[in-house]
Amino acid sequence: MVACEDCLRKDFTEDILNNLLNGVRSINVYGNPRDGASRLLEDIKNSISKNAKVFIINIKNYKYDYSGFIKNLLEQCGLNGGTPETLDQVIEYFKDFNDKIILMFDKLDAIFNSEDNDRKYDITFFNCLNSLKNTPNTNIESQVSFLCTTEKTYSAYVFYDNEQSVSSPLECAIKRQLTALTYLDIEKELQRKSTFNTVERSILSKKIEAHDDPYDFMSFILNNPITPNRDIKEKIEEWRESYEDSIGQTLEKKANKLAKNIIRFGKILGFDKLIPFITNIKNIFAR
Fold first, then answer.
1. Which of 67, 136, 66, 132 is nearest to 101 (CA)?
2. Mean pLDDT in residue range 162-184
3. Beta-strand pair 52-58/158-161
């Protein structure tokens, strides 16, 4: 049994980690990405024993760069300039390790419901991941296990293979929905990472727990200190407004990028009449 005393979600993290260490070969954790899904992976890595190696890759960062994805994985393995060029070759290389290997792909849904991924993310890529689930557990201590995070359960997505839409080709042994952050989870995190007094932590924990994006909002608070000696309720209101502004700016950037791409392709395809309509949509996000 592994203990995860400093983890954000202690019980949930222990459950996932013990499954991975005791023979479960593939797990899908799904839920709001702003609720600390990425933090879960970091907590697992920090809680693992010395006899296991954990590799984390944010797939969203490599959606258009399969080679970069493989390079990152090899660098984490200590194989700078190594010869494996595909995921199945990397996993084959792992078989020479005496340690347990845990691959964790954050935001794997970045390559679902999308037609513009790097073409090397194909059915073969998913077959390789599925093979981990289907390989017999002959030696738990040296096997390769896989965990991925998605916003929805992986089976709710479609995948585009050679421009053809197919049901998600991924298969995981178990699925787990990311548990909601509790008041106690939040209060302990604030105690670990801030100098708020007991009363302030209590007020903050209640506000954070009730927020739509509790983990991201809490992280924003911890990373954006406000002038001391002010009433905590005033501080919370200022943090809330600043956080919402930051989210709004992110949405506006995404809307601008989307609108530019649609306008560019509209001109190419001769759909110029749609441009004013698209511009109006973009301006809605800018308000």
1. 132
2. 93
3. unpaired
Q: How far apart are CA 110 and CA 15, in angstroms?
A: 26
Share above pLDDT 70 across residues of the chain, in percent, rounded to a whole number: 81
The pTM assigned to this predicted structure is: 0.82
Distance CA 37, CA 106 (A): 8
Q: What is the tens place of the pLDDT at every residue in 186-204?
A: 999 999 999 999 999 999 9
Place of tokens 């992110």: 250
Q: Where are the chain's structural domains?
A: 10-177
**pLDDT tens digit string along 120-146?**
999 999 999 998 887 655 555 558 899
pLDDT tens-digit series, residues 33-74: 899 999 999 999 999 877 788 999 999 999 999 999 999 999
**What is the Cα Rg of the chain in Å?**
22
Mean pLDDT for 137-165 is 84
CA count, 13 A, side-chain hemisphere, 136: 1
| The domain defined by 10-177 carries CATH number 3.40.50.300 | yes
- At 281 the pLDDT is 53
Beta bridge partners of 53: 101
Q: Which two tokens stand for residue 137?
A: 């557990």
